[in-house]
Write a structure and sequence with these properties.
The chain is an all-alpha fold. 75% of the residues lie in helices and 0% in strands. The protein is globular and about 70 Å long.
Length: 495
């Protein structure tokens, strides 16, 4: 009760609430654009440590603002703890994805997908096909994270083999993954948004089609055009043969290996918890490594003859630490190197630091104060939509979590939409069009950090190509400005 009294007696001004945000954004901008501009090696990357520390500095600045306004230190720590608790599953999923991708490379699952992909696809049609495949998988699984961790990784591999920039492929993967995540009734965010706005799931999904389908169509056309421009840079028949021969020389390639990814996708479609499905995929990948690629397991274990102990050691080393599979092709050398669970630690570190910043910001009342200011600017219908979009973006930037970017604006704006005579589906659609999809575009957001690490491409590099994600909030604002498909409350609902 004492804490509540202090907060009521010392509510932050808007400028006080913005101080930590301004400091953090300025430091991150300097870090990415200047301090690490033109880095010479992959280890010299702000995501490997300095961005994390800047998030802690931002949290310290927020804490100072809190102390000035008499907010108790223990309450800040308590909120940080709750934030970390909420991200515990995401951290475990990240660790499991690191292990899964490593075992799928060692077992030959990903090499087999790449082997078939570079023979069946060509650079002209690959990008729109990648977008569509990821859209379908995500629609049926309801998870952008699971889509990226399975077919997304394979698409990056196939695209690299075809000579297409990983940043472009990542843009197609993320665009497709978030289309499915947004429109699937199995998705947690698709269920969360209507719950916060006060409408039903299927009314929400039905109303989203008006902004989502035009955005998706433009995105598909974008990748068709990009694909046509890839033709001159693609690989020819001789190079394709060199790549497939190199894979053949190192791996046993067989359709039997596809049993594992198919089982994982089926498990996710049947609503198995992602962590359980990924664990099953990792264990099966390790088993298939021993069965189908014993020579590679021996190579990882640094032995000449494989027995139970060396097989165990080889598979475990592959799951948890750096592994390099030496190929006869330079492209494949870089493609088949893995970091295992160890490779995910910098991303986990980033998420933890982001949750510290978001927790302190929430505890001192900064997030609520910023949302309140945005709400006060909503004088017209377009202003209300614009304020909702701005609030979702602010939460994704500051709280670093897409769920907070849906929950906080959802709670803040529900009554405002009713006061304007607007049906709750307007709010739920805007929450999804902004809160869900833009999370993957912010490097220190949990979603941006996850996608960057899993796909091996920084958010700053795939940002422009993830057209579906940044075009979605713009499409929402266009519809709001021209009053296209704006649904008003019926007299019955008003009553």
């Amino acid at each position: 009760m004492a804490f509540r009294k202090l907060r009521e007696n010392a509510e932050l001004t808007l400028w006080e609430a913005l101080i930590p945000v301004i400091v953090l954004v300025a430091l991150l901008a300097y870090n990415v654009l200047f301090a690490y501009n033109g880095k010479v090696n992959p280890d010299d990357d702000p995501l490997n440590g300095s961005n994390q520390f800047l998030l802690l500095i931002g949290a310290a600045v927020a804490a100072i603002v809190g102390f000035y306004n008499h907010v108790d230190y223990d309450k800040m720590i308590e909120k940080v703890g709750l934030n970390l608790k909420d991200t515990s599953e995401a951290i475990l999923i990240l660790l499991m994805v690191g292990a899964l991708s490593s075992t799928w490379i060692l077992s030959g699952i990903i090499p087999t997908i790449i082997y078939g992909g570079i023979q069946l696809l060509n650079p002209v049609i690959f990008l729109p096909i990648a977008l569509i495949i990821c859209s379908i998988v995500s629609l049926f699984t309801g998870s952008s994270w699971s889509t990226s961790a399975t077919v997304g990784i394979a698409m990056i591999g196939i695209g690299s083999s075809l000579g297409i920039s990983p940043a472009i492929v990542a843009g197609a993967v993320i665009s497709g993954a978030y289309f499915g995540d947004k429109m699937s009734p199995l998705s947690d965010t698709t269920n969360l948004a209507p719950a916060m706005a006060g409408t039903t799931l299927f009314a929400h999904i039905n109303y989203m089609k008006y902004t989502t389908f035009p955005t998706y169509t433009i995105t598909l056309i974008f990748f068709i055009i990009l694909g046509l421009n890839q033709n001159a840079n693609g690989v020819g028949g001789d190079e394709i043969k060199q790549l497939t021969d190199a894979i053949d020389a190192k791996y046993f390639v067989s359709p039997l290996l596809m049993i594992v990814p198919v089982l994982v996708i089926v498990m996710i479609v049947r609503k198995t918890k992602p962590l359980i499905a990924l664990l099953a995929g990792t264990l099966l990948g390790g088993l298939f490594s021993v069965i189908f690629q014993p020579s590679l397991v021996a190579e990882v274990a640094k032995v000449s003859n494989l027995d139970f102990h060396s097989a165990y050691k080889g598979v475990m080393e592959n799951m948890v630490t750096d592994t390099s599979i030496e190929m006869n092709n330079e492209k494949l050398n870089s493609l088949f190197g893995t970091g295992g669970m160890k490779g995910m630690l910098s991303t986990i570190w980033l998420i933890i630091c982001a949750m510290v910043f978001g927790g302190v910001m929430d505890a001192i009342g900064a997030l609520a104060r910023i949302s309140k200011a945005l709400l006060s600017m909503a004088h017209s219908i377009f202003g209300l939509f614009s304020s909702t979009v701005a609030s979702c973006l602010t939460m994704n930037l500051t709280a670093s979590d897409q769920y907070i970017a849906i929950v906080v604006p959802g709670k803040m704006f529900t009554q405002a939409y009713k006061d304007k005579g607007l049906d709750p589906v307007n709010l739920s659609r805007t929450l999804e069009d902004t809160g869900t999809v833009t999370s993957a575009l912010i490097p220190w957001n949990t979603c941006g950090a996850y996608q960057s690490k899993v796909l091996g491409v920084g958010a700053e590099h795939y940002f422009i190509y993830a057209m579906f994600n940044w075009l979605s909030p713009i499409m929402t604002l266009i519809f709001a400005y021209f009053r296209i498909k704006i649904k008003y409350l019926t007299e019955e609902k008003k009553a």
